[in-house]
Specification:
The chain has helices at residues 4-51, 54-61, 65-86, 89-116, 120-143, 152-173, 176-203, 212-242. The chain is mainly α. It starts with a helix and ends with a helix.
């Protein structure tokens, strides 16, 4: 015969464990978003400081530095997960903040061109739209009961295809219409990527595990990359529509 008092005790212990997991998960996700927000702020600061230096902008435009920076971003994006999870914590942080700094340098010429065109308001509009889209899809990824893991392969292949299309257009076609199409597709794909990444990052949390700190850095790295990608292409869309 079941003992009601013992049954109640087990239920209470299970409830406390659930509360502890929920509290730990919230703290973990808050750490992810805090890291990401700091990286976005740092990127913005670097971009604005560089964009205010006209001589530096002309130097970057006249040299292949932008392609070096682009290659650096792709390289860090590829190798960072291994460094974050298997290297030292210093290396993990270094890789994350270097990534944010490189993005800041890459965005600066774009911000400069908008400022010179008298369209600085488009920069703030793009940031507001990006924050709204990112917040909505990330919340969906966090709260949905649907398993999004099946999206991974498709999103990865779509992202690779878009990178190739962007490079080909920048080097060969230089078409404004193609740029508009690819940027629109990037916004759609990386909105889905953000939801997928948020669910993945949430699933990486393990109560009391020492790996949670590294997982938080990796999560911030992934979401930051998606946020900045969305911002760049939303800003590009606004610029093309204005022209």
């Amino acid at each position: 015969m079941n003992d009601p008092q013992r049954q109640f005790g087990r239920t209470a212990e299970t409830g406390r464990a659930g509360v502890e997991i929920d509290a730990g998960l919230r703290q973990y996700m808050l750490g992810v978003y805090n890291y990401m927000a700091l990286a976005v702020a740092g990127t913005g600061l670097i971009s604005m400081l560089m964009a205010s230096n006209e001589a530096l902008m002309f130097q970057i435009a006249a040299t292949p530095l932008k392609w070096v920076g682009f290659a650096g971003i792709l390289g860090i994006g590829w190798f960072a997960p291994k460094v974050i999870f298997s290297g030292s914590k210093v290396a993990a942080h270094g890789m994350f903040w270097l990534y944010a700094a490189l993005w800041g340098a890459m965005i600066a010429p774009m911000l400069y061109s908008f400022q010179q065109a008298g369209a600085a308001q488009d920069i703030y509009r793009a940031f507001f739209i990006t924050a709204s889209v990112f917040g909505a899809v990330s919340l969906y990824g966090y709260t949905t009961k649907r398993n999004l893991s099946g999206w991974g392969s498709f999103l990865f292949m779509a992202a690779i295809g878009l990178v190739i299309a962007i490079i080909v257009n920048a080097i060969i076609f230089q078409s404004g219409m193609m740029s508009l199409i690819t940027s629109s597709l990037v916004v759609l794909i990386f909105s889905a990527v953000t939801a997928y990444e948020t669910q993945m990052i949430k699933s990486m949390y393990q109560e009391g595990s020492s790996t949670n700190e590294r997982a938080a850095i990796f999560g911030a790295f992934a979401l930051y990359g998606s946020f900045v990608t969305l911002f760049v292409h939303i800003l590009n869309i606004l610029g093309i529509m204005r022209d």
